[in-house]
Design a protein that fits this description.
Oligomer: single chain
CATH topology of the largest domain: Trna Endonuclease, Chain: A, domain 1
Number of strands: 5
Helix content: 40-55%
Order of helices and strands: HHHHHHEHHEEHEHEHH
Distance between the termini: 29 Å
Number of helices: 12
Largest sheet: 5 strands, mixed
Strand content: 5-15%
Shape: globular
CATH architecture of the largest domain: 3-Layer(aba) Sandwich
Strand order of the largest sheet: 1-2-3-4-5
CATH class of the largest domain: Alpha Beta
């Protein structure tokens, strides 16, 4: 797990572990105390501000929901979770509720918009919701449907393998030419290198139907554009399991080999492709800066902790 969710969650877990010792030692506890700031990022001011505005919209929603729209009600919470409150203090569960809201909102933040801003600055052109329209053989489209059907039904015992599947599709050069229209979450074109990128960007724990649709779109794009300078990717903006080899959410594993398929990008792999080496770390720094803006309000208005 990475970016802002990691940042808040890591601090919350550290807090729950060390709370008792610190409180007995008389330490003044501040939730969500941020790490030291780093230097300037590689992003231009315009790019940086564009990213910040997207993050701020997400944070405004979380903070307003937890403080204004659905404020903490200790009596109601105790009534609903009597055993939880019996075994640990209120502040633990209060922090847990904020964490859940944050994690949920992180999945809806608009990763494709952030990626567009970064990719446009680095590659030259990027577009969300790009209509990809071209032609390919009907035989290829039929085989794509067959592959998806086989992956969906376990009795066929087919395992996902992007390279094998794509080779099967591109080996077919028969049937009528059919017009195909798909929409890519993110389309990027680098005129200098003449490279095209079509990205399906999903939440880190996507459902099966979403992933099936992405797989179908990716195979169709490559059926239309088999050239080596056209790249398709299934993207997770961060990996909630840490290391790639540890990714274990079951639903996308039906459609992709999440460990070995090179078209699957997670976290740093994706962000550095969109913005160059170091983009992933610089993006985390921007999230930290926005978090710092909201720190006083979270501490004071939600947790009741004054500076």
């Amino acid at each position: 797990m990475t970016v802002l969710s990691v940042f808040f969650i890591t601090h919350f877990h550290h807090f729950t572990i060390n709370y008792w010792n610190k409180i007995h030692q008389g330490v003044n506890i501040k939730l969500f105390q941020f790490y030291e700031e780093k230097g300037d990022t590689m992003f231009s001011d315009e790019v940086k501000e564009g990213i910040k505005e997207i993050i701020r919209r997400m944070m405004e929603g979380v903070v307003n929901r937890r403080i204004v729209e659905e404020p903490w009600n200790p009596e109601e919470e105790k009534e609903n979770k009597p055993f939880h409150f019996a075994i640990a203090p209120e502040l633990v569960w209060k922090g847990s509720k904020f964490e859940r809201s944050l994690v949920t909102s992180m999945g809806q933040i608009g990763w494709e918009q952030i990626a567009r801003i970064i990719a446009e600055d680095y590659h030259g052109y990027a577009e969300n919701g790009k209509a990809v329209i071209a032609q390919t053989y009907s035989g290829r489209l039929n085989h794509i449907r067959n592959i998806l059907d086989q992956l969906e039904h376990k009795k066929n015992k087919r395992k996902p393998n992007w390279d094998v599947e794509l080779a099967e599709v591109l080996a077919i050069n028969e049937g009528e030419m059919e017009r195909v229209h798909v929409t890519a979450d993110l389309y990027v074109y680098n005129e200098k290198t003449n490279q095209y990128y079509y990205c399906e960007i999903k939440a880190p724990k996507p459902n099966s139907d979403q992933t099936k649709v992405s797989k179908e779109k990716m195979l169709k794009i490559k059926a239309m554009y088999p050239e080596d300078n056209h790249h398709v990717y299934y993207v997770l903006p961060y990996n909630p399991y840490g290391k790639r080899e540890d990714y274990d959410h079951p639903h996308p594993k039906r459609w992709f080999d999440m460990i070995n398929d090179e078209v699957v990008l997670m976290g740093k792999e994706f962000w550095d492709l969109m913005g160059g080496k170091g983009t992933y770390e610089d993006l985390i720094d921007i999230f930290k800066e926005v978090g710092q803006e909201y720190l006083p309000r979270i501490n004071k208005d939600y947790f009741g902790i004054d500076d």
